[in-house]
Design goal:
Elements: H1 5-13, H2 42-50, E1 63-68, H3 76-89, E2 93-98, H4 100-104
Parallel strand pairs: 1-2
Helix pairs in contact: 1-3
């Protein structure tokens, strides 16, 4: 609810993708057109966090986004989500990258 998916689609990928409203895109087996997506509503997101065991965004544990990659090169979509969280919730996110070669050899 704190991420404006349309903004990310416009800025990060120049509207070359359909905004996802669920885990499965249309035309994929298992897609359910009756599911209602969560609407972009940063205030509601803050209210839900306030109602959680944390009580406030300032009391959230450290947020670490783990992804594959190297050299601090993160995708525009991931960067967009992180920026949305910063802008709309005031949280900081650390990105932890796992090098693809290292993770494939284990």
């Amino acid at each position: 609810m704190a991420v404006d998916k349309s903004r990310i689609a416009a800025l990060a990928v120049k509207n070359t993708v359909t905004v996802a409203n669920g885990i499965l895109p249309p035309d994929m087996p298992g897609y359910n057109p009756k599911l209602q997506p969560l609407q972009f509503d940063p205030q509601k997101a803050k209210q839900l966090i306030a109602a959680s065991k944390y009580g406030d965004v300032s009391k959230l544990p450290p947020i670490v986004w783990t992804t594959s990659g190297w050299g601090n090169d993160i995708s525009g979509v991931i960067g967009g989500v992180i920026e949305e969280w910063r802008r709309n919730l005031g949280v900081e996110v650390t990105v932890r990258q796992l090098e693809p070669e290292a993770s494939c050899t284990r």
